[in-house]
Amino acid sequence: MLSEDELEGVIAHELTHINNRDTLTQAVAAAVAGAISWLAQMASYSMWFGGRDDRNSPNPVGLLLTIILAPVAASVIQLAISRTREFSADAGAARLTGNPRALARALQRLESGARQMPLDGNPAFAPLLIVNSSAGDWFRSLFSTHPTTESRIENLMKLEQELTGSY
């Protein structure tokens, strides 16, 4: 599906993930998000099964908001870190190959293929893909592991101008 230079860009993108230790970064972010979710769950248990002393009991509305919002906020932060790592891997691949346009073409081609043959698999595999498995509106992109292909290509074209301007 990809030309040689496009494939080189994709491989350089993945090698940059390895070089930047992005798997470790994502594992730490997932652990922090899990800890926050666990604390929120414990707060929930304390609300339902804790003592019934009205003087020392927490505000139920505040506790309920914490229980709901803390895990969502932790997930959004984790996904934002993931999107940032994707931009970084794109930039690293562009610098490594010296050809940001090839990666941009590869991203376009891969997204086009993903639209023609959507992957209706487990959403847990989304971080393993190079393009968004569920591109859509702003709200869905908030919970996406990858930035939009358009924004990635835009960044790559800016980087191409920087790289060609420095020679």
List its salient traits:
single chain, 167 residues, mainly alpha, 6 helices, elongated
Structural summary, described in words:
This protein is mainly α and 167 residues long. The protein has six helices and no strands. It has helices spanning 4-19, 22-49, 60-97, 100-116, 138-142, 149-165. α1 packs across α3, α2 (22-49) packs antiparallel against α3 and α4 packs antiparallel against α6 (149-165). The relative contact order is 0.15.
SSE series = HHHHHH
The total strand number stands at 0
What's the Cα radius of gyration? 21 Å
Query: What structural class do helix, strand and pairing data support?
Result: mainly alpha
Low-pLDDT sequence parts: none
Proportion in helices = over 70%
**What percentage of the residues does DSSP assign to strands (E)?**
under 5%
Main β-sheet: number of strands, strand sense, barrel status?
Answer: none
Number of helices: 6
* Mean model confidence by pLDDT: 82
